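Closing statement on the G4F sub-project.
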Amino acid sequence: MRRALITGITGQDGSYLTELLLDKGYQVHGIVRRTSTLGRSRLDHLYHDTTIYGQRLFLHYAELDDPTTFRRVLIKVAPDEIYHLAGQSHVGLSFEIPESTCDMTAMGTLRLLEMIRDLKPMPRFFHASSSEIFGTPTIVPQDEQTPCAPINPYGCAKAFATHMVGVYRRTFDLFACNGIMFNHESPRRGENFVTRKICRAAASIKLGLQNDLFLGDTTAQRDWGHARDYVRAMWLMLQQEKPEDFVLATGQLHSVQDVVEQAFATVGLDWRQYLKKDSRFLRPIEPQRLVGNASKAKCVLNWTHEVTFAELITEMTERELSFLAKNPRSEAQAA
Ligand code: G4F
């Protein structure tokens, strides 16, 4: 049975990847921070399944800023594949906490690479890189050759980690890959990301639980896909003969305004009555025209996104609607 280790297993991507790997017959090990609350998390359904948890799914407490405990887990688990998804992933927040963002995302990745270098045999390594490394790109759409030009602390940290993965691949012969992922969403997305915030608000307003939706820049555009499609590509990347970097994207740009219109259309409401601008959600600087060219992933991995933008936003809004209808007083949690 192949063994996989996932950092960030309790997140959106970690939970989908866990399901995928369990389906493929892997034994899955996840790293969780001591502060993580497992109750009501995205892994709840697996955690409470006694045929899975403790049999084929295992969770370990460790922190990337505490290399000794982390190394101990690595030695004990001896994974064949490592999927490194952990890190502070909110761009807006990275302006407020740049040092801890860089420590977790940039230095955390380097520490992990250093630990892997000492393992024999060295496991295959996937790093969740981001379109934020491109910032203000001179090339549209962006591909694996597009130069890094990050414009926020998060993008800088990801650019550092992405380059380090390349350095370790070339220098130490590590099977290490960067998945340069454009925005990917789902009903399991954190509530402080714009798609989930909008879909939840549309459902909540429909049910009379909320009056308005406050947003920052609604003209901002992104290349949005479904997270389930993206974790499939992560696995494919580690099954290739040679390690390479791949852009994972849909190739289609949509604005925040498009998300609003799709979500409110799903619940049959006129968004004009509810949308309010709020400068608290504006960022000091916005990346420009981040849209990916995933031709290499299509050609080499035979990967392409399957879920369209409209299907994604409709699914997210419908899930919020059915969840909130059953749990009207619920706190933020995965729908
Ligand atoms: O949903 P967002 O916060 O995602 P963002 O900044 O694009 O970052 C996400 O995708 C990256 C690429 O994959 C990842 F690397 C990163 O970790 C994260 O997953 O914001 C999307 C856009 C931005 O332009 C933002 O300014 O929506 C705009 N926006 C407008 N009003 C808002 C809001 N964003 C948030 N979160 N909240 C608002 O009220």
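The longest strand covers residues 124-130. With this model delivered, the sub-project is considered complete and its resources will be redirected to Aim 3.
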